[in-house]
Write a structure and sequence with these properties.
Structural class of chain A: mainly beta
Number of strands of chain A: 12
Helix content of chain A: under 10%
Largest sheet of chain B: 7 strands, mixed
Helix content of chain B: under 10%
Radius of gyration of chain B: 13 Å
Distance between the termini of chain B: 37 Å
Number of strands of chain B: 11
Distance between the termini of chain A: 41 Å
Order of helices and strands of chain B: EEEEEEEEEEE
Number of helices of chain B: 0
Oligomer: heterodimer
Amino acid sequence: GNSVTQMEGPVTLSEEAFLTINCTYTATGYPSLFWYVQYPGEGLQLLLKATKADDKGSNKGFEATYRKETTSFHLEKGSVQVSDSAVYFCALIGGGADGLTFGKGTHLIIQP
Amino acid sequence: EAGVAQSPRYKIIEKRQSVAFWCNPISGHATLYWYQQILGQGPKLLIQFQNNGVVDDSQLPKDRFSAERLKGVDSTLKIQPAKLEDSAVYLCASSLVRTAQETQYFGPGTRLLVL
C-alpha cells in the first residue's frame, strides 16, 4: 500500500535560517505529492503540490521537487519567519487510491 | 467562496454513547472525504463519496461507524457505540472532481473526546 515517511519533530530553527523537511514515499504507479500545513488553531490547508516527476511545487517561499528516482518530496525554504511556525504534513494520492495518505507531520518552531 | 463547514467543533461523550458529525462541502464539489486524525499522527481516510455514492470505505470500522451523503451535498458521520480509542479530530474535505491531481479542501474539524 501507499505510505509516507517524514522527519519527526519538533524542528526548532532561528528566524532567517534555511529549512529542509525530508519526505519519502512508497506508492505504486505515479502518485501526486502534496505538502499541507496546519497553523496553530487553524485547519489543514494546501501549501504546494506536484503531480508528475521533476515538477517543482512552490508557494509562500516554500519549494519541493518531485524526485521519482529517490521517491522523495523534500520541503525547503531559504529564510524562515516566525509566522512559518506550524505543523507540516507530506501526503500523496496514488496507487489506485483517491484519498490522501499522510505522513505523521513535522512540528516546526521558529524562534525570533 | 465559503469553505468546508463542520459541526460541532467539539464534543465530549462517555464510551458506549453515540455521536454524529455534520459536514457541508464547498458548493459544487462532487467528492467528499472523512478523515480521522489521532493526536500526533497524520489524518487517515475513513470514507470517500462521489456525489451520493460511496467510492472507498475500506478503512471505515463498519461495526461502529457509518456515514451517508444524502442528495450528494451534506454528509453525516456517526459513531455508535463510541470507544475510548475513537478520541480524535474528525476532518471533512471536499474536492471539485475525483482525480489524483485535484486539491482537497479541509474543514476545521470536530474534536471528539470519549471518556
